[in-house]
Amino acid sequence: MTLTNFPSLRRRHLLTALVGLVAAASGCRDGISPPFEPGTYTVWGDDIMIGFVIGEEEVSAYACDGRPEGVALSEWFHGPDNGGHANLVGSEGSELTISTSEDAPPYVRLTVNGVQHEFEATYEADPKLGIYWGETDGWLGGWVFATPDSQRGAVIKRNTGDPSFVALQGTNATEVVLPDSTTMTIQRLAAPRDLRP
């Protein structure tokens, strides 16, 4: 089990991500979870990045380990914010549970094929960081930037579900060329959106 610490830029949040059959308890104050603070958050560790966007009523997230060496994890999550708690079902049937706590640090638990990873989440005040996405002609792309120079990402052909690594040329990129030479327009995910294939 690996624990990697990242500083929080706002009040503390607890994010517990479960891929597979994993459940986690949510942090509470006086028995009630505080509401989510809207915005963009990221986590990074064990070569995996997770970005998530909290809105007024919904939450969207993307987890990926896509690098030039290959892609083993590329999964989208989306669902409602139930008063400070969200249970999301991923595009591959995985589960992502997000909850808040005033007195606990931002925290992420990701379990993939029985392997557990733990991280802490960071609120991203920088409008260039977070999740980027695009879709065109049967392709769906997702990228997470935890720093301006660090990304994890992949494009998925919807009819096969096969992921391929394609790098964005930084957070100012507005398009990317896909493996079949199709050009995809890219934008930052600024509000929750259901992008599950």
Q: Into how many domains do the coordinates divide? A: 2
Taking the sheet with the most strands, its summary is: 8 strands, antiparallel
Proportion of residues in helical segments: under 10%
Range of strand content: over 45%
Query: What is the strand tally?
Result: 17
Q: Mean pLDDT across all residues, rounded?
A: 77
Order of helices and strands: EEEEEEEEEEEEEEEEE
Rg, Å, rounded: 16 Å
Label the structural class: mainly beta
Enumerate the spans where pLDDT stays under 50 for 5 or more consecutive residues. 1-34
Strand order of the largest sheet: 1-7-6-5-4-3-2-10
Tally of helical runs = 0
Which geometry do the CA atoms define?
globular
The first-to-last residue Cα distance is 30 Å
Concise synopsis of the structure shown:
By secondary structure, the protein is mainly beta. The protein has strands at 14-18, 39-45, 48-54, 58-64, 74-80, 85-90, 95-99, 108-112, 115-119, 122-123, 130-136, 139-147, 150-157, 163-164, 175-177, 183-185, 187-188. Helix content is 0%, strand content 46%.
